[in-house]
Amino acid sequence: MHDLCTVQPARISDAAEIAGMSAALIESGLPHTWTADRVGRHIRHRECAVLSARSGHELVGFAIMQFGDASAHLNLLAVRPHVRRRGLGRQMLDWLHESAIVAGTFTINLELRAGNVDARRFYLSMGYTESGHVHRYYSALEDAVRMTRNLTVQEIP
Description:
The chain is an alpha+beta fold and 157 residues long. The chain contains four helices and seven strands; from the N terminus they run βααβββαβαββ.
C-alpha cells in the first residue's frame, strides 16, 4: 500500500475534500462540524499537522493533529473503506508520532465514537490505552472513548 499512496502535508486546496470525507466517514449521523473553513484553519495553523494521503488523484485518507506544550490531540484520522487494512492509517499515525517526538510532545490524546469497534482496535494496536469515557461527547448525541498514548514507552512488536 505504501508505494501506491502518497502521504504528505495537506494543502489548502485539500480542505473541502477532507471536510467531505470527514462528514461521510467520521461525522456520519452527526452534525458536520469539520467544515472546509475549519479544516483550512488547521492546515494554516502552525501548531497543527494535517496530512493527506492520495492514491493517484483520489484522496484516500487524512489526519489532523494539534500540538500543545505538554500533549498533542489527534482530532481526526480517516481512511476510505476500500483501502483500509493496508497500513495507510498506521503510516499516517507513525508520521504524526514522529512529528510529536521532534516537537518534544510525548503524550497523544484522542476521542473516538464509543461504538466504533474497528477504530478502537486500531488505536489499541498502535499502543493507545483507554483512559476514559465521555458521555454524550459528540453533539450531545453519542458517547466517546478517550484514548492516550505515551510515546516514551517503547512499542512491543
